[in-house]
Amino acid sequence: MSYQIIDRIIYFRSNPVNVNVKINYNQSLEFPAVTICNQNAFNCHWSGLPCGPVNFTEHLTDYGYCYRFVAPENARSTGSDNGLNLLLNVEQYEYMPGPNDAAGVKVLTHVKDDHPRVRELGIAVPTGTQAFIGLQVIMIHNLKKPHGQCQYKSLKYFPRYSYDSCLAECYTNMAARRCGCRDFYMPSFNDDLSSLTETCDCPTACEYTVYDPVLSYATTSDYAGQRLMDNTNITALNAKLKRARETTHRMEERKLRSFEKNVQKMEQALKNVKQLMEETIKERIANQIENVTFHYKNIMRVTQKRILLLKYQIYNVQKNFMRGRDAMEERTLSHLCNSFHEFVFAFETNLRNIVGENETDIKRVFYINTLNMIDVRTENAKRSLANFTVLYNAYVTGTPIFKYKFLNFARKHNTFIVPRLLMNDSTYHNS
């Protein structure tokens, strides 16, 4: 029993959280604010009744100059006939070169007091289509600490806290802090930059509403298009088209002169920069060529010196060591083992002659001849041992046997050019 009580207390102190999802069927819902960018209102109906410019307010967003529709009352029924119906003319003939190449409008549904992030969250609607946007209202209630992480913050430019409004204020403060300016759509009170908020922490709101859109399209019929054209003042549209094209392709004289002046300044500045860069680059290239040439000559000089020393070293080893070994092998070492079986056969023959011969003088001759053969072999072995000792010591200590001279190098340098480690290692390896 005590264990269960303690376990429940520990569980309660861990601040457990449950997520509850509840579907409410309300009699009426607050209709969201609808921000529409890059369009001109041509026809408007709300809940089956006509609406006009009074229902739209101009609004600056991150997507440009837009219009916002705020419903005068709550929506009391579902369906497209009870919502907002707009017939829009995007007036493509007034489009100017810019960052947005698409033709159509961008629509964003949001809470009235929230800052509209049209560029990031807006829905693109192309021209020549009927777009049906259904909305699902999702109201989220988060818990405060310690059960959750939500909290409210007081915003300077917005009366109601939301994540989007906090993010917009954050961008405004960041732009003002880093470059001393702000984008055209960012909120401001025209106050000093030094008093702007320096923090950009945007926690999750404890209560907020999300309008989840469901989008479908249908192509505008030829009949509807023809009926629209019949009810439109073609003359007025032609005049607007002509004026828009003239504005697009022609600039005001004052602006044109200012633009030409700026172009001339830019060309002169670029010319100065180009001249400076050419002089600097030429100077640096000349310095690099000089440095490369200097280092190349040094490397070639060192390389040639090393090649000469390597040739000197090879010559010294071949003439003062290997040639001595060849001479010793030719004079003594090769004779020590050559005709060995012939010597044994002659020695055995002399022994048989000495034993088998009755004459004392003849035996003495064979005996003396045999002793002479043994003495010759013994002396040759002693000389071979002496030569081998000299050769071995020369390879171990690096002392040259002969004193051949290489080019104009003095003979006293022969000792210093000997590769002693290699010569010493060669005594342990056979080729």
From TrEMBL:
It comes from the Eukaryota. This is Amiloride-sensitive cation channel 2-B, neuronal. Keywords: Ion channel, Ion transport, Membrane, Sodium, Sodium channel, Sodium transport, Transmembrane, Transmembrane helix, Transport. It is found in: Membrane. Transmembrane segments: none annotated. GO terms for cellular component: plasma membrane. One of its GO terms (molecular function) is ligand-gated sodium channel activity. Belongs to the amiloride-sensitive sodium channel (TC 1.A.6) family. InterPro entries: ENaC. Pfam families: ASC. It is a multi-pass membrane protein.
